[in-house]
Design goal:
mainly alpha, 88% helix, globular
């Protein structure tokens, strides 16, 4: 079973890293996509995906398992908030886009992309090392 979880960690790491790179390359597009997704009526499913995607991270045992466990717990604990309050996330994006100029939106995406790439590289490193 640990092999499959390790493979999941590697796959998640690759996907997360690629998403972060795309966000750095096209930050305005990334912000608008996140905003549109948060306003979509099926956004509550994002909470279910966070919980389902974070759970395997909590049972991983290998290199960097403590940090990966912490990331998994954060994802699993964030999921119910997205599931129960999807409208608040949509309003947050709406407020951010109204109160910030494009440079502010870019900064938010850049910061988020750096964390995403760091987590992805950690996952990949956990598999490789």
């Amino acid at each position: 079973m640990n092999y499959y979880i390790s493979l999941y960690i590697l796959t998640a790491g690759i996907i997360i890293t690629l998403m972060g790179i795309m966000e750095i390359l096209k930050p305005v597009l990334a912000f608008s996509l996140w905003k549109r997704w948060a306003e979509h009526r099926l956004f509550f499913l994002h909470g279910i995906l966070l919980m389902a995607g974070g759970f395997p991270l909590t049972i991983y045992s290998g290199r960097f398992s403590g940090v990966i466990f912490a990331i998994g717990i954060i994802l699993v604990m964030t999921g119910p908030f997205v599931l129960l309050y999807p409208g608040k996330f949509a309003r947050t994006f709406q407020t951010a886009s109204e109160e910030m100029d494009q440079d502010g939106e870019k900064k938010i995406i850049y910061i988020e992309a750096v964390f995403r790439i760091a987590a992805g590289m950690l996952f990949i490193g956990s598999y490789v090392l």
